Amino acid sequence: MATEIRVPTLGESVTEATIAKWMKNEGDAVNVDEPLVELETDKVSVEVPAPAAGVLASISANEGDTVEVDALLGAIEAAGASAEAKTEPASKKTESKPAAASGGGEEIEVRVPASGESVTEADIGEWLKKEGDAVELDEPIVSLETDKAAMDVPAPAGGVIKKIIAAEGDTVEVGSLIAIIEAGASANGVASSSEIGDANRPSPRAAAAAGHDVSASNDKPLSPAPRRVVAERGLDATAIQGSGKGGRVTKGDALAAQSTPAQQTRAPSAPRDLGEREERVKMSRLRQTIARRLKEAQDSAAMLTTFNDVDMTAVMELRNQYKDLFDKKHGIKLGFMSFFVKACVHALKEVPDVNAEIDGTDIIYKNHYDIGVAVGTEKGLVVPIIRDADLKSMAEIELEIADYGRKARSGDLKLEDMQGGTFTISNGGVYGSLLSTPILNQPQSGILGMHRIEQRPIARNGEVIIRPMMYLAMSYDHRIVDGKGAVTFLVRVKENLEDPQRLLLDL
Questions:
Q1: β-strand 72-77 against 54-59: which pairing, if any?
Q2: Which of 198, 330, 403, 478 is catalytic?
Q3: Where is this region: Disordered (predicted)?
Q4: Cβ pair 185, 103 in contact under 8 A
């Protein structure tokens, strides 16, 4: 029986696509999840994977054709149904048919899992196990980085890592074979040698600089970034408390540890080797995506920024008055961000253009208020979404922001956590920024930049007084938001923060 290949759902408001390229011909053998055809929409290019293994029996839409969502693209016959199937490349054969286990146990393949719509490949970030190590069912064995987030791949069975196919830093497609587990085997039954080496062993240069082994601390494997900091700073890896997932040491943990007196155990170093002054490191998938999206925003939007400042006296006094009671009742500290989220939602209702987006020649006005809150992580900036922020209390907003922060630091954010926002708030003030011009998070039309609070002199009623002031920056897409609307929005945010009772009275 043939398995149909159809155009997948391509995202909100996208109803059709163009056939860009077929990667297989009729009669070719295909593996499940192997990319078959590339589609192009007005927003993104996507690859359609094979829904089943077998032979590509027919192609129903040709390159250059425009097809609607769910349209038939072709059909796959079960393996053996066509005697004319073409021979696969040697690399594909090796992946789909690993050698038999020497120990006699069943070989279980570890493959790159699907990680969300439009995500077709990932980078091997870190192997948490090496060849010859025993693993339990569902135990994390490797960390992958996609252009959206990082994730751990669990062991599909208990046994021993017999072979690691892909090394750290390799780019692998969804469905690719990356390791083989010999089910039921013991750690002593499989040799630990590997053609790609120990995935957790530091480079000779880093090990020599550190003077000791930094591959792990208290059985917590170090990923390349913290390992490099430990080696360069001469830190004691076993004394660093890890804050990452499963107690893993992050780069931030290692950087923080270098300023602790107890960590300064480095012996006098040899004269500096001036022969290697630079280091080339491949950008992570997440960093590549951040770079691409920011450049796309600058290239496609008519971006403009307007500024104002806000007296934070009222918000700070309100926090000081109720912070203990708030914490006691809700189990979370009252921060500034919930005030800004509520102030922005109130302003968005008055200036709906800022909460809209452009789609071709149409404007889509959003009747919901899903506010993105930018969170900085070791691997880059991510923007999880506070959905229906207008319906949530300040306590619910603070709890959700805190939960997203924990997920971001541990790499547990999911793709759906960061999709569908209507407006974004970015707080550069936590890093000490005085003023900035934030870049739009497309396809949104507005983003608010917060900055540090500092005591500044201002004139009030003919007198100079000192007040805690914050500069606000509002970047917007001038194609949809006029200057009057942007200024009005920012003034409303300022008024709501300087007199928070306006939010209660809906003024």
A1: antiparallel
A2: 478
A3: 81-119, 189-224, 240-279
A4: yes
Q: What is the pLDDT of residues 436-465, one digit of tens each?
A: 999 988 889 999 999 999 999 999 999 999
| HSE of 30, CA atoms in CB hemisphere, 13 A | 31
Helix (H, G, I), strand (E, B) or coil at 438: coil
User: Residue 173: what pLDDT?
Assistant: 87
Provide the token pair at 293. Answer: 């999206």
| Residue 55: both structure tokens together | 């032979």
Q: Which amino acid is at 241?
A: Q
CA-to-CA distance for 4 and 26, rounded, in angstroms?
14
pTM of the model: 0.51
Q: Which residues pair with 37 in a beta bridge?
A: 22, 48
Residues 177, 109 contacting (CB under 8 angstroms): yes
Distance from C-alpha of 275 to C-alpha of 255, rounded to nearest angstrom = 25
DSSP code for 104? -
Active site residue 368: no
- Residue 445's contacts (CB-CB under 8 Å, 6 or more residues apart) are 353, 354, 355, 356, 357, 358, 476, 477, 480, 481
What does the alpha-carbon distance between residue 448 and residue 152 come to, in Å, rounded to a whole number? 33
Domain, as residue range, for 221 = 204-263
List of residues 6+ apart from 352 with CB closer than 8 A: 365, 366
Which of the two residues, 247 and 80, has the higher pLDDT score? 247
pLDDT tens readout for residues 154-174 = 888 889 999 999 988 888 888
Q: Are residues 334 and 477 in the same domain?
A: yes
> What span, in angstroms and rounded, lies between the C-alpha atoms of 434 and 125?
35
Q: Is residue 102 part of a domain?
A: yes
| Residue closest to 497 by CA, chosen among 437, 446, 453 | 453
Extract the runs of DSSP E, i.e. beta strands, from 149-290: 150-154, 159-164, 171-173, 177-183, 216-217, 220-221
Is 306 found in the same domain as 189?
A: no
Q: Is 359 a catalytic residue?
A: no
Co-location of 341 and 464 in the same domain: yes
Residue 146 and residue 209 in one domain: no
* Same-domain pairing of 450 and 466: yes
Least confident window among 93-97, 134-138, 227-231, 400-404: 93-97
Measure CA 494 to chain center: 31
Domain count, the chain: 4
300 & 228 share domain: no
Most confident of 113-117, 188-192, 229-233, 407-411: 407-411
In angstroms, rounded to a whole number, what is the distance separating the alpha carbons of residues 128 and 152?
A: 9
Q: Which token pair is 224?
A: 């390349």
Longest dimension (CA), the chain: 92
CATH number at residue 383: 3.30.559.10
Q: Are residues 225 and 343 in the same domain?
A: no
In this structure, what DSSP letter does residue 422 have? Answer: S
| Whether residue 87 is found in the same domain as residue 103 | no
